[in-house]
Amino acid sequence: MKIIIVENHNELSVLVAQKIATYINHNPNTLVCFAAGDTPLGMLRELVTMQSRKEVDLSSVWYAQLDEWIGLGIEDIGSCVRVMTDVFFGPANIPKERIHLFDGLDPDTNGQCRAMEKWIAAHGGIGLTLLGIGMNGHIGFNEPGTPDREGCFTVSLDDTTKSVSVKYFGAERSVSTGITIGWYELMQARTAILMVCGEAKAPIVKASLKGEVTVDVPASLFQNHSSLTVMLDKAAASLL
Ligand code: GLP
Predict the structure, then answer these.
(1) Tens digits of per-residue pLDDT, 162-194?
(2) CATH number of the domain residue 192 falls in
(3) Which of 34, 67, 161 to mutate to test the pocket of ligand 1 (most atoms within 8 A of CB)?
């Protein structure tokens, strides 16, 4: 595990974007998987800017969506598909055939999971994943306690995740379930980047990177990833 600490969120966004662009330039046609959430937004915008400067071709790779809120679709502000479409897939002009999404509105969640697993397998597994950490240590929607099951699945959201979710939706929404690529599958990604910023995440960063490896802190499992770079701002790293 390599740890890189920079001054602030802006610097972090630029540095992570440069690392991902370099990866894409060296691995066209690989499959990448990016977390939504607030942390990567600046980084995603930076990637789009880099593409406009012809420094990277974001349509040269394939995309798998990491996770989604069950019950929400593209019309819903704060859904992962809405964020990724508005901030990244749309502005970067990524062709639809390059992207595989979870449909949070499809009641056949089992079918959604199998389709995502097929997509991942058809593209040779995940080449690079960019992950964030939830306030409770979750990765994607792998909540604390999620056992090591292969593939994708739905998870009951814990109370921390439900209360934090208000920041995405701008109001209370009754979300109780998430659909996600499972952590066992994410652990197989050939390269993983964990991007974290802000003082509020400092305690969970410490537990994830310096604490026991346990399913109770899903991010801690990534201590055993074969090629993980943790990229943090100073505030998130303040307890390390
Ligand atoms: C969200 C998502 C994750 C994300 C994490 C951190 O709920 N399920 O994919 O990485 O929590 O989000 P943020 O960056 O907004 O703190």
Answers:
(1) 989 989 998 778 899 999 999 999 999 999 999
(2) 3.40.50.1360
(3) 67
C-alpha 35 to ligand 1 mean position (Å): 7
- 62 and 30 Cβ atoms separated by less than 8 Å: yes
Instruction: Taking each helix axis as running N to C, give the angle between helix 9-26 and helix 41-52, from 0 to 180 degrees, rounded to the nearest 10.
Output: 50
240 part of a folded domain: no
pLDDT at 148: 83
Residues 205-234: what's their mean pLDDT? 97
**Domain limits for position 134:** 2-233
**Total structural domains within the chain:** 1
**66 touches ligand 1 (CB under 6 Å):** yes
Query: In angstroms, rounded to a whole number, what is the distance separating the alpha carbons of residues 172 and 159?
Result: 13
Catalytic residue status for 143: yes
